[in-house]
Amino acid sequence: VILSNTETIPGRSIVEIKAVVVGNTVRAKHLGRDIAASLKNIVGGELKGYTELLSEARDEAVRRMVASAKAQGANAVVNVRFATSAVTAGAAELFAYGTAVVVE
Amino acid sequence: VTAVLGSGGSRLTDALFFFYVVLPLASFIVTSLITFITGRVIARRWDADLDRRERALSSLTVTTCRWAAGGSVETVGLCVGCCVGAIDRWRRFTGSVRMMFGGELEGWTPILARARRAAMVRMLERAHGLGATDVVNVRLETSSLRSVESGSKGVSPVEFVAYGTALVRRF
């Protein structure tokens, strides 16, 4: 499955639009990571533990979106967008959505 | 300290005073002073690291437009980079002072800008790894993560996401 955040796949033409496909995951950080991150939060700089956690979670959201696109018989997802929201203290929702299409 | 404040009563009040006033105040002052210095060191090192990595990526054409003209596109791929940044104790303190008077929080602006740049560099490195010549339709997003420590008020870590479509073009 080809992914793109442009409206078309550059160099190919869309023959059929299938549906809007979404993928999401709500993740909480575990205690060990949280202790390290709360110390790092005092010092400043990058919170590497959180960066890793969120990128893994985002990859998972994308995988779910792609699985749903495959199930619809699409071979590409265009106009992919991401959103993050902090649901509560210690948990965040990672969300990816796009339009499943069939390209040549 | 107890002599000055005239609380020279029992040992219990002395102990309470120590644990609830002296210790938090001392830890606040010590962490503020330490992070004043470490904040500068982290900023300088991080900037140098990002400069070095950006030089290696100078061959990429990066745009927020939807399309790069010319040539034929061979491969397309979505690239994502992210970075979670935090503001150190000292700059939180100076920021809280600034918030009483309004105006720009000079200490915070470069910290957020640097973390966003790190997210961007990571995204471009992914694209570079795919052998891309261009990254089009670049989007930058910011979201604040509520941490257990910060609760409803206080300063939360901030997540920056950069994403775009990597193109491999043949001319």
In short:
Chain A is an alpha+beta fold and 104 residues long.
Protein model, in words:
The complex is a heterodimer of chains A (about 100) and B (about 170). Chain A is an alpha+beta fold and about 100 residues long. Chain A is built from two helices and five strands. Chain A has a four-stranded mixed sheet. With about 170 residues, chain B is an alpha+beta fold. Chain B has helices at about 1-5, 10-55, 90-100, 110-130; strands at about 60, 70-85, 135-145, 160-170. A four-stranded mixed sheet of chain B has the order 1-3-4-2. The N and C termini of chain B lie far apart (about 75 Å). The mean pLDDT of chain B is about 85. Classes of the chains: A alpha+beta (about 100), B alpha+beta (about 170).
Which labels suit this protein?
heterodimer, A: 104 residues, alpha+beta, 2 helices, 5 strands, 36% helix, elongated, B: 171 residues, four-stranded mixed β-sheet, 4 helices, 4 strands
Class of secondary structure makeup of chain B = alpha+beta
Q: Please tell me what the overall shape of chain B is.
A: elongated
Helix content of chain A: 25-40%
Outline the low-pLDDT stretches of chain A. Answer: none
